[in-house]
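Subject: for your reference before the review

Hello V.,

The reviewers asked for a structural picture of the protein, and I figured it would be easier to keep everything in one thread rather than splitting it across files. Below is the amino acid sequence we used in the manuscript, unchanged from the supplementary table.
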Amino acid sequence: MKHALVTGGSGGIGAAICRRLAADGCRVFVHANRNADRARALAAEIEAAGGRASAAVFDVTDAAAAHSALEAILAEGPIQVLVNNAGIHDDAVFPGMRPEQWQRVIDVSLNGFFNVTQPLALPMIRTRWGRIVTVSSIAAITGNRGQANYAAAKGALHSASKSLAQELASRGITVNVVAPGIIDTAMSEDAFDAEAIARMVPMKRAGKPEEVADLVGFLASDQAAYLTGQVISINGGMI
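And here is what came back from the structure prediction:
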């Protein structure tokens, strides 16, 4: 049984990914920071449905805390499927953006990626099989007003993933990025009404978290063994 870690696993997209990976036979570590109760509840739900899951609670921006938590996880076996899904919004037009807004968004998405992925890389390499999938955003491809910090953080993940893909390809490890458009989650409910979605999305609807999870599930499978270094946007035809 392969072990999988999903950062930000207690959120809308993250939870769907956890359920999909568990259904595919992985033992899933559901990560959360502030939403520890939701992570534990999701792990219990997966276990009740016949899967294997545990909650993993730590702050991805705290390198020491992340390292300690990951050591405990690795004591049970290497992580072979890593989904970097943790990320936050703190939107403001650039001239009015506070330094802490810039730093916090960069810290969670980009530094969090390093603090989690780097300690897991060598144990994954030793298994000669691995899947690293990072959840980005269409904002990193097109840009978005009021989200210079978010687009910068996610765009940097595209470049980091392409470089890491080249480093790990010969070890049987693929590294890819999924860049969702408007997805029907609590985070998007306040940002886009039905009229805006119909105007922006050729399919005239928001995507479902399960549709993102299906793509991640494929990228984490044996069938995606020759697919690496790619940024795949799932956006209903927006671009």
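For the response letter, the relevant points are probably these. The mean pLDDT is 96. The longest helix spans residues 99-127.

Happy to draft the paragraph if you're swamped.

O.
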